[in-house]
Write a structure and sequence with these properties.
The protein is mainly alpha-helical. The chain has 3 helices and no strands.
């Protein structure tokens, strides 16, 4: 294949996005109600970026690819940020109680 582009990325349906978020967030120490809301928020983030990318293409003629990998990166970044902020809060709490 020479000078050919294949679009391997199909949009995930909303229920698939929620299922992936559910599995990913299951491993994080969260209250069930918080986990449920985060699932919906993550799905909404991804869907809204995808919608904005379509508008960007229509208005500007430029592509912004939103792939399943983008969604997995969103979930991974959330986990990293939450872990770091919890550690920082723990350090501050220990420092202030001395």
């Amino acid at each position: 294949m020479n000078c050919c582009t294949i679009d391997w990325f199909k949009a995930w349906p909303k229920d698939a996005l929620e299922a992936v978020a559910s599995k990913f967030l299951k491993e994080i120490d969260l209250e069930d109600a918080v986990r449920e809301r985060l699932m919906l928020i993550c799905q909404q983030f991804h869907s809204s970026v995808s919608d904005a990318s379509e508008r960007f293409l229509a208005e500007q003629g430029r592509f912004n690819y939103v792939t399943p990998t983008s969604y997995l990166e969103l979930l991974s970044t959330f986990n990293t940020l939450l872990t770091n902020k919890r550690a920082e809060a723990g350090r501050l709490l220990r420092t202030n109680t001395r």
